[in-house]
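Whether sequence alone determines local backbone shape is best considered at the level of individual chains. The sequence in question and its structure tokens are set out directly beneath this paragraph.

===
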Amino acid sequence: MLLARMLKVCLLACASSYAVVNGATLMSKMTALHPSVKLVGLPEDSQPITLQVGLKLQRIGELQERLKAVSTPDSPDYGRYMDADAINKLFTPSDASRTKVLGWLKEAGITDMADHGSYINFVTTVSNANKMLSSSFQNFDVAGVKKLRTLEYSVPDELAEHIDLVSPTTFFGRTKAHAVLPPKREYMPYPRQNSNTTLNCARLIEPGCLEQMYNYGSYREDAASGSRVGFGSFLNQSAIQKDLTLYQKAYGLPLNNFSVVLINGGEDHQDPTRDFGEANLDSQFMSAVVKTLPITEFITAGKPPFVPNLDIPDEASNTNEPYLEYYQFLLNQTSDALPQVISNSYGDDEQTVPKEYAIRVCNLIGMMGLRGITVLESSGDTGVGAPCQSNDGRRRAEFTPQFPGTCPYITAVGGTQSYAPEVAWAASSGGFSNYFGRAWYQEAAVTDYLASRLSPETKERFSQYAGGFRGRAFPDVAAHSLSPNYLFYAAGSVAMTGGTSAAAPVVAGLIGLINDARLRAGKPVMGFINPWLYGLGSGNGTGITDVTGGAAIGCTGVNLQTGQTVVGGSVIPGAMWNATVGWDPATGVGMPDLLALVKRALA
């Protein structure tokens, strides 16, 4: 009991004992934590901790204009992408920044460090880290995972202009897969061995259904075109090759295995008895679309057990902070080692991600666009929001968007449900970012939505919960998520799944087919597709099928993904985003029509 009281007092007071002191600049501060985050103990002063200093990137103010130039179809620079060396040369931190930060680390007695150009990893003790950062690292339980974190940290004044962030520090996120995995049931798929096979797409979603829904059944890709697709796996997930083979055989798909790239100590678990639902659905649904095109899985280190070293973060950061390590790795790969389309299906409530961390990650995603890589992210499975309460200490009711889907340089994929016609899925995450401003490419679409698709009463009421509608609006596009479920294979058995995690690899596969057509026509790949996507319009021949039925709901006191009560959350009666004509926060601009999109992309 005494220890519990001491820990409670420390949670409230220890950070203030290291509050901004003379000569230090506060870099990040958590005013309040999610109710599920619990302080569980104090680390030993001598406990090792691995930290990363993200150096200030030069010319980052040029990123958006450069991305706009290579991504906007009527730009003279459209499709003129940069390679890894050019990106590094353009944005690399200054020599002064590197010199000053390395000097600071050496003065602090750090001998175990590694300089990676834009960031520096180093190992020290908890005691020394607290002194260096005016912080108080403590052990927290975050969704069942022990994490070493601090409520705030500072850096010396003279270094503030040279450092973007230090991590892991104030990130208490609970990164989760955007997948809904119902219990396994005895549904057997209908083998697609000839064109006369009968489908029942109103009951279950199989590859033949996707071909009909997104109009790619008659498209014939060329595995030698150079078009490649990939997906990210986190949280100790690995796609099982044997399960993919079972899926492909069941539906008469080409037998096309995926390659695997390991990041920061990631492990490829190929135990066929393990149920890796998220990674399996990524590989199987992507395969259902791209057929013979090469597929790559990128596995970033996940849950412990874990053996740390200097270049791989310690256990405390290893579980739920995949984004920096992931995109830093990808950006340093040569163009021929990267797929031109990468899908990801993991996210956090935006408010749980420190803003400086989110901005840094988002900028890296923007650089992926400069490389000509289309990065897609499932928008999330919590609708308008789940906690629906600010975590700044004021506990204001607000809609809670999902990161990284709120990054303006990513293509966020929302969800639909039903079949012929599809309508907005009730749990499709969408809304307006509280971190990032409205993107240039969506200005007209969002302005029309706010002016013509929301009643004045609804607009006035929701404005207070959605940051005045000033933020980056998401999702951008949508595809089937749930109701009916998708069939897939997990641990050697047929199972059902769904969520925006299923929608994202489907859309990614379709972009891979568009790239296939463009490469065969001697054109560059699509790259960052949002400027093109928002310029297509909707209707016959545009390549976009508008979704005008259904709605995304949320803020009911129940997490729509898990079905669990949100402890300490706010309830906002009537919170929802209706699917409307044009762009809306439930389904974006609508759903893709592959053959029409290929025609538009080749025009």
In short: Residues 2-57+93-172 form one domain.
